[in-house]
Amino acid sequence: MARMTMIEAIRSAMDIAMGRDDDVVVFGEDVGYFGGVFRCTQGLQAKYGKTRCFDTPISESGIVGAAIGMAAYGLRPCVEIQFADYMYPAYDQLTQEAARIRYRSNGDFTCPIVVRMPTGGGIFGGQTHSQSPEALFTHVCGLKVVVPSNPYDAKGLLIAAIEDPDPVIFLEPKRLYNGPFDGHHERPVTAWSKHDLGEVPDGYYAIPIGKADVRRPGSAATVVAYGTMVHVALAAVADTGIDAEVIDLRSLMPLDLDAIVTSVSKTGRCVVVHEATLTSGFGAEIAALVQEFCFYHLEAPVMRVAGWDTPYPHAQEWDYFPGPARVGRALIEVLEA
């Protein structure tokens, strides 16, 4: 076991996948010699050569389009979109081509690609480097969507994604890239905590896509979160002292509905937390499912805590994010309802 940041865990996953399968190729803007803007691919070109880890022009549609063609002919591309905000030129390729190949070909072709994207805020990147577009992908049949919250999950889920026969959108929360995060932006973190799960096996392991993780058992309420917001939820529970169960979805599509239903049926209360804007965010889907499958167990309305319904506010970044105080108020409200 080694102590790894999420960046190191992601790099280890690609390294292991490339070592196990010569068909795995890694490419994108600046991912070769430079090692990626966040250094997730650092050293891979030196180890595997320029034909298996290489740079591309600044063309997101070209990156994804080339990956789709490679995948149809037997390769397993793992490509990087430098920021999730840059993926819009490639959205047509992802939704109209990658997501449809299995169905349009009646199973004759599959599209085993992984599209890695740093997502969310926390680096003062402004409106075009901080978006959380996960709901745009979960709405598309044929795409799988994964959002890890810690280094251990990031490595195991990325290996599983690379091995998956269908296209996987792999969203990497930037705030979690470089080390521990305790959910309070104003408090520096100087040591790994039990919530960061920084111990990561050096070798191969895979975490099945579509399985949530109960990060904290509880009986008073259920908090459903993913990515960075898992840490915010854990901080809110610790700050309030409420015995809430915290579920880390890990995979948005396919969604582990059984884990959600089991928890909410036990607690009778549910708070959903995500960083993206509230309206039409993925939390609305979770709230609808909880109402549909847990209606007779609910003791209070399902509550959502999310980003503002505004363009991303650069100067007010930390106010925009759901923080422990906002999540804590929601927990208190559902308990008092």
TrEMBL record:
* Coiled-coil positions: none
Biological process terms from the Gene Ontology for this record are: branched-chain amino acid catabolic process; response to nutrient
Specify the domain of life of the species encoding this protein.
Bacteria
UniProt keyword Oxidoreductase, yes or no: yes
Q: What class of enzyme is it?
A: oxidoreductase
Q: What SUPFAM superfamilies does the record point to?
A: Thiamin diphosphate-binding fold (THDP-binding) (SSF52518), TK C-terminal domain-like (SSF52922)
What species was this sequence derived from?
A: Pseudorhizobium pelagicum
Q: What is its EC number?
A: 1.2.4.4
Q: Which residues form the Transketolase-like pyrimidine-binding domain?
A: 4-179
Q: Does the keyword Oxidoreductase apply?
A: yes
- The name this protein carries in UniProt is 3-methyl-2-oxobutanoate dehydrogenase (2-methylpropanoyl-transferring)
> Which coenzyme or cofactor does it need?
thiamine diphosphate
Molecular function per GO: branched-chain 2-oxo acid dehydrogenase activity
UniProt keywords, alphabetically: Oxidoreductase
